[in-house]
Amino acid sequence: MLWVFLLINVWLCSGAYGQVRVYMIHLNGSAAADKVTGFLNDYVAAVMAQANLTYTVTQQPDSRYGALQADGTWNGLVGSLVNKSADIVAADLTITSIRDTVIDFTDPYTPVHLRVVININASSADGLKYLVTKDSSDQIFIQSSKEPKIQAIWANIQANNGFVDNYQVGLDKVLSGGYALIMESVAGGAFNAANPGVAKITDDVLWETYYAFGVQQGSPLRLQLSRVIEKLNAIGTTQTLFAKWGLTDRL
User: Which range among 6-10, 17-21, 199-203, 242-246 shows the weakest confidence by mean pLDDT?
Assistant: First the structure.
């Protein structure tokens, strides 16, 4: 899997809010216990330094971003905020309207595009089988879209049972040939940086949204983190870190 989900226990140096627990998704680099590296590791460090926070890192148990379950509960990172086991989610977490009903999002730290990834030797006219990550924001958008082209993609996914557990499983199928994966552009950039010249995307942008941090509803941390994120975007820190780790909007 491209990402490792990490739990960060954070303490506010000022003591204003007491103990703050933050979940982080590891986009790239290394998540080894003795050496954690990557864009989000650096970006969280920059945010926490500006917010005067200290933190430690540990792994998120279920390795999910957060989807509404049949019994009305939430799994993943969103669920950790809803059940109050986490105070902040620092991840490549997509802002969606349904998630926004149960958690608060900070200001975005980057836009993100939903794209179609195919084998470097394939063509979009090859009759590919489409894949989407199960219970993800990608699936929610594809499933609910009213655009005929995207409805056709959804029909293809259903007909071929094109649901995968994560991007890595989908990318493995793409590289084997005959498949097209619905994938967020930043994740695609992380994959391309680690595996150049093996995949490409079609020209279409299916959807544009944003990545942000998440907090519990009503938390004062939303405003504090939003101010820091706005500052880091304004002074170019976010863009510098994206460039450092080879993250781009295109494969």
Answer: 6-10
pTM of the model: 0.83
CA angle 211, 135, 195 (to 5 degrees): 60
- What burial class does residue 57 get, using C-beta atoms within 10 Å of its C-beta: 0-12 exposed, 13-18 middle, 19+ buried? middle
pLDDT at 165 over 60: yes
Q: Where do the domains of the chain lie, and which CATH numbers do they carry? A: 4-110+210-244 (3.40.190.10), 112-208 (3.40.190.10)
pLDDT at 4 > cutoff 70: no
Residue 29: phi and psi, rounded to 5, are: 80, -145
